[in-house]
Amino acid sequence: MKKIVQTAGREALGQFAPLFAEANDDFLFGKVWNDPSVDVKTRCLLTVTALVASGMTDSALQYHLQNAKEHGVTREEIAGVLTHVGFYAGWPKAWAAFGMAKKVWAEEAPLTDKDRFQQEIMFPIGAPNDGYAQYFVGQSYLAPVSTEQVKIFNVTFEPGCRNNWHIHHADKGGGQLLICVGGKGIYQAWGEEPVVMTPGTVVNIPANVKHWHGAADDSWFAHLAMDPAGENTSNEWLEAVSDEDYARSCEAARNI
Fold first, then answer.
1. Which CATH architecture has domain 8-104?
2. Of 202, 97, 219, 221, which is closest to residue 154 (Cα–Cα)?
3. What is the secondary structure of 60-128 as a DSSP string?
4. Is the dihedral of CA 12, 17, 22, 28 positive or negative?
5. From-to residues of CATH 2.60.120.10 in the chain
6. Distance of alpha carbon 242 from alpha carbon 233, whole angstroms
7. C-alpha 88: how far from its chain's center?
8. Coil, helix or strand for 19?
9. 3-class DSSP state for residue 2?
10. What is the reported pTM?
11. How would you write 152-196 as a 3-class SS string?
């Protein structure tokens, strides 16, 4: 965590009230704000809440709203917090705070579902997976994670998106390894029950096994995909997963 350094106290009151300035800069911000027991984003929201509840809608609130934005508080989060505070601290106080918050977050457009999911996962979603679009139902995205030694790709599926049945052929070795890094997805081998994938789920797919994988119908899904080395490897794309089979798999996923 980046250390928070504050000098506003000494700049504004260093000559007039040096003890107050020292307490503000060195103790409140120097020690309390840097205490690791509470993360900085949470401290920002707590401070905004306390100021609004106290009826403070001056430059102090504007500073802490800006500070909250810089430490990851989104436009949607601050709107939710101020709405909640309004019911407990008073409607007029919330109205005043909203006016200031709108200015601080004026240039920030509302997050899309894709933006929200990107915040949940540590790997990039990447570009639309146009090169393989013909083998997918729905929209998928592809981002290279490693292009040397072992090739690793992050594949992201919008809700309802899945790839066709396919086979990773190999005379020896080969197959595929999937690691879920976000959301909820489904893997199914031909003739077997579907496997629900959540963050941390690892699926080892042997060579020459017909299978498919994709998102549940109510969730985004992302997995890392790796193709182990093998002899005479090739991929064969087959028919799309039927709506009936997909619906049954999603029903199983909803129970997780």
1. Up-down Bundle (1.20)
2. 221
3. HHHHHHHHHHHTT--HHHHHHHHHHHHHHH-HHHHHHHHHHHHHHTTTPPPPPHHHHHHHH-SS---EE
4. negative
5. 117-254
6. 27
7. 30
8. helix
9. coil
10. 0.61
11. EEEEEECCCCEECCEEEECCEECCEEEEEEEECEEEEECCCCCEE
Query: How distant is the alpha carbon of residue 56 from its chain centre?
Result: 33
Torsion sign, CA atoms 112, 116, 119, 124 = negative
Say if CB 96 and CB 57 are below 8 A apart.
Answer: yes
Q: Beta partners for 157? A: 140, 221
pLDDT value for 2 = 67
Q: CA–CA separation, 108 vs 88, rounded Å?
A: 27
* CATH 1.20.1290.10 intervals, the chain: 8-104
Q: 117-254: CATH homologous superfamily?
A: Jelly Rolls (2.60.120.10)
- One-letter identity of residue 155: V
List Cα–Cα distances, 135 to 197, 230, 245, in angstroms: 21, 23, 17
Two structure tokens written together for 99: 């006016």
What pLDDT, in 10s, does the model give residues 156-205?
999 999 999 999 999 999 999 999 999 999 999 999 999 999 999 999 99
Question: Would you give the end-to-end CA distance of the chain in angstroms?
Answer: 34
